[in-house]
Amino acid sequence: MKSPSAIRSRLTLVALAVAVLLMLTLTVIPATATTKVTLVSEYGTHTEAWKTEMDAFEKQSGIDLELTQIPYANYFDQLTLNFTGNVGNYDVVYISGLWYPAFANAGYIAPLDDLSDSINVSDIPGIENAYQKGKLYIIPYMNELGGIVYRKDLFDDPDEKAAFKKKYGYELQPPRTLKQYQDIAEFFNRPPKLYGVTLMGRRSIFLATHFMNRLWAHGGQLLDSNMRPAFNSPAGVQALKEAREMFKYANPAAKNYDFQEAVTEFTMGRSAMAELWTTSLLYADDPAKSKIVGKASFVGFPRPDENLGKKLPMLYISWGFAIAQSAKDKDAAKEWVKYVTSKDAEVRAAVHGNIPARYSSLGDPKLQAKFPWLKAFKEAMEQGIPTPMVPLIPEGSALVNQYLVPAVATFMTDANADAKKVLDEAANGVTELMRAGGYYK
Question: Rounded to two decimals, what is the model's pTM?
């Protein structure tokens, strides 16, 4: 039999061993149990905005976030390589609303229908564009519309108002009709120091938006209910002619403008209006980039008189969050998406450079005090049908870029081109594209 002292020594050693084991357990478990969610995005103003919410989410949830950013020019290709190579580097992808259908139909991103109630999708205008085959795949974070950004200081100037009324017989105001839009562009066109309107004339999808804005304003559409091309209608012919006419009141250099050049011209105070989308106002309000800080506002795209008050398509651009099908912890990924797209988080981040996706965020009094133009933007959202610049079908990008853009560019650069003819030729190409896609029996 062992002595009492030996027994006590053994018990002491056991107790020490248990204590050491407990200490090791307490230090190891938290480190191995930490959940990490990997995010990927482009470099852009709205990404910089939502990045400001990452620390607060990590502290609140205990979930670590790791963000990779890729230059926009390479972003889509890098995402595609990640998905097709089955690398699975990213759990949550922040993407354009024009990209997600391809990823959804390929099975690269997961349906998010179980988030519909907790996220309150009815508060998000344009949410119908986030569905493919009846399933929700992306939660919008940034929404914007195509319309007219304009110089409030010029529109509110008493001398300008008096001169305009004397010449045109009605009050100078943000244009609600296409006739007003053209009159105002003509009135303020004073080259070379000031142009009536800034447009984007380079052969690109940006040029095509000038046609689409007018097509929709006249009640037209790109495709009809049978998926047949409909842009070569009388509304389309009128829209194409009106788009070319407006270039008379733009800087001749605008024939080579894309979005960035157009924004720069407007924010440098060289035009009274610009036919752009709402992000341009974030540039206009940035003292580092603008000479017209606090002097710009927004109005939805004008219409002919007979279509005032109607709910018609308006050019809609959106970015949002989707979850990769390969995400290691989809529940944790969804927690981030729910958090960052909430009303409170959207409002906090918006002041750092974003246009929120929610009606409730757009209507926030403090945010409207910071960006007064949000009130007009919200009204335009409520009055229009948010419509992407390409149809959200696999052939959508080809329809616009391969057929519509060349048609519009041809008419803009060839004074002898016939509007109906160039649109008919584009429609013939789209018909064959859609036939090959199996849309017609």
Answer: 0.89
